[in-house]
Amino acid sequence: MIAILAQAQQAAADSANEAYLLWGFILAAAALGLLILELLIPSGGLLGLLCGVSAIGSIIAFFQYDTMFGVSALNFRDGAARSKKRHMRAREPPLLLALNPAGE
């Protein structure tokens, strides 16, 4: 009888963990959608703030599911941010060209 109760408790814990995984992916998708909306709709930064909160919530949910998933989500977002900064730096015009568009 005790073995059956232990198995039932383990099944309930597994389904709770799977809920964290599901919420992690839902919040990550919401963060991506809000980021795209932030680029298209002028909201005064409100959508950007909601995107950040959603991204942090997804990282927390992934950590609640499993430490490996949490670290992976954290590294993915950190890598994406660094890649974006590197890409934006490469597109900046040289200072002299920006000050003197004619190139004189």
Q: What does it look like?
A:
It is a single chain. The protein has one domain. It has 104 residues and is mostly helical. It is elongated, with a radius of gyration of 22 Å. It has helices at residues 2-40, 46-65, 67-91, 95-99.
Provide a concise account of the structure shown.
86% of the residues lie in helices and 0% in strands.
Q: What number of structural domains do the residues give? A: 1
Question: How does the overall form come out from the CA principal axes?
Answer: elongated
The Rg value, from CA coordinates, equals 22 Å
Q: Note poorly predicted spans.
A: none
Arithmetic mean of pLDDT: 76
> Which band does the percent of strand residues land in?
under 5%
Number of strands: 0
Structural class: mainly alpha
Question: How is this fold's topology laid out?
Answer:
Layout: H1 2-40, H2 46-65, H3 67-91, H4 95-99
Helix pairs in contact: 1-2, 2-3
For the structure shown, list the relevant keywords:
104 residues; mainly alpha; 4 helices; 86% helix; 0% strand; elongated
